[in-house]
Amino acid sequence: MGIRKKRNFRRKFKINNKKNKELLQSLSLILVLSFVVGGIYTVYENKNYEKKIAKIESLKIEEEKIKFIKDIEKEAESSYKEYGVLPSITISQAILESGWGQSELTKISNNLFGIKADERWKGENVEVATSENYSDEVMAKFRKYNSLNDSIRDHAKFLKENPRYAEHGLFKGKDYKSQAQALEDAGYSTKKNEQGEAIYADMLIDLIERYNLNLID
């Protein structure tokens, strides 16, 4: 091979070698970008999937809550006609006191309102651990009912027979806000916020307005 041919060959080899390197670099970059984009897409898809699952779970929870309201709605209306406690108040109290019917007490006794079994109670009772003074846990006896409907009726009867509720205007209240406030004023609950302010009435009103329970009244 002549000198000129050798030089041409070397020049072509260098050019081809340079092109090969550039091609390899391009391919490597494409592969890296593919992994990066693929990873981002996977993360995006996973987040979308998680959001969908969360939405489905949220819808299930809401459906269960609506079912709970429907399950006790009729008895709350019937109880109102006899005792004068608005259905929206009865239902919101049941929600708050029983955790939408999911509390341990409600599950084993159908007791929606946490009414204790004192010497006046002649029916069955159950013993459940309860908190006193925020930290001390003690065993206490609670009323046991055959059904949630029995619990609702006994709750209204309990309020009617206890004079302090009438004294604070529970049965004179013709709307849910005034009845909620009367329950708080009569000391039905001692729930307070961090500032030490009573919040039971506000909690009931919030539930009533969030789920449009006042439409049942």
Automatic annotation (TrEMBL):
Keywords: Hydrolase. It holds the Pfam family Glucosaminidase. Residues 58-217 form the Mannosyl-glycoprotein endo-beta-N-acetylglucosamidase-like domain. The keyword Protein transport does not apply. Gene3D superfamilies: 1.10.530.10. InterPro entries: Glycosyl_Hydrolase_73 (IPR051056), MGlyc_endo_b_GlcNAc-like_dom (IPR002901). SMART domains: LYZ2. One of its GO terms (molecular function) is amidase activity. PANTHER family: PEPTIDOGLYCAN HYDROLASE FLGJ (PTHR33308:SF9). This is Mannosyl-glycoprotein endo-beta-N-acetylglucosamidase-like domain-containing protein. It comes from Paraclostridium bifermentans (Clostridium bifermentans).
